[in-house]
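Format notes (please read before filing issues)

Several people have asked whether sequences and structure tokens are stored in separate files. They are not. Every record keeps both together, in the order shown below: the sequence lines, then the token lines. Line labels are part of the format and must not be stripped during preprocessing.
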Amino acid sequence: MNDTRTMDVKLAVRCMPLFMAALVLMAGMPLRAQSDSTFEPSVTVGAGLQTNYQHNAPTGSSSTDDFSLDHIRLYLSGDVTKNISVMFNTDYEGSGNSLQVLDAVGQFHFNSHANVWVGRFLPPSDRDNFTGPFYANAWAMFTDGIQDGYPFVYQGRDNGVAYWGDFKAGTAKIKASVGAFDGASATGDASIIWAERLQVDFWDPEDGYYLNSTYYGDKNLLAIGLANQVQSGKTATTADFLMEKKVHGGGAFTIESEYSRYNNLGGYNANYIRSEGGYGQVSFLVPQKVGVGRFEFLGKYADAEFTDGIGSGLTKNPSYRQQTVETDLSYIIKQFDARIMAFGKATSFNAVQKDYWEAGVGVQLQISKQIKFH
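Then the structure lines:
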């Protein structure tokens, strides 16, 4: 039998150098903001809305038509000192008809190499978790059995602490993050969840902690990311890839893919101990404007397999395979601040669950304003 306490100690030792490096960098950078006459604190406020109409047609059952209020988010962030800031975001989720704390983070930022966040936020994980529904390229996020199956408290978030930094290695740009997060609230196991991510950008850099799954032609990207979370010997591991190339006139060609393996940690179906799979996604943002925006075409294929069902004998859940095909036609008015997305998705299973297809139209709007105090 594995000693989970020994496993946690080994993981702590492995992560300690990064935490120590961050502390050393902080020790050499005193918080001078309060005595710096050039420091001008600011507050940024914002809001985001996602809503859609959807037709759902399951095999062997009656179809449904729904108008859904998917998300309403309120954003608030501001400076405490030159090197310390606070971020607080809320999210109303239509499916649960509830308002929740999305992010509540104390942020210590000294330079691009030394950043520490504490509170509730996205742990080191896959790109899709870092983009979320508002900065994803496709509409039907988190329905393919692959994307962001990591354990969480709410909307991919967990309570904890993380170090992250951006570095250069020759012509490549490296993003590294590592953190410790609360296990009891995310999985019911009181052991710490250790999370880590390493990403390499070979072309343009992606600054900061969070990511997008497209930049709508603002960057040329070639990025590979590896992420892993461990709790009591249980693991969740992903590898993601993003390539985006600008097209003359303001368009973009984008390829995104991911492989995931959830081994008794996270996953999409709690009745199965293991699941793994991958997806590939291609999109093209047309350079020419039509009216106030540009059209984007997107296609996606995903394949996930669920094995080692809970139970034994006749009561054991049988393994099954899920395949997902999605096509989107989007009208991009102001990138992530104003877009309309028509989507269609077919999901099929070889056992356990019923096939279904759905189609609809979604609308996303966001606003933000920075207020400076002189």
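For reference, the curators noted about this record: The first strand starts at residue 42 and ends at 58. DSSP finds three helices and 16 strands in the chain.
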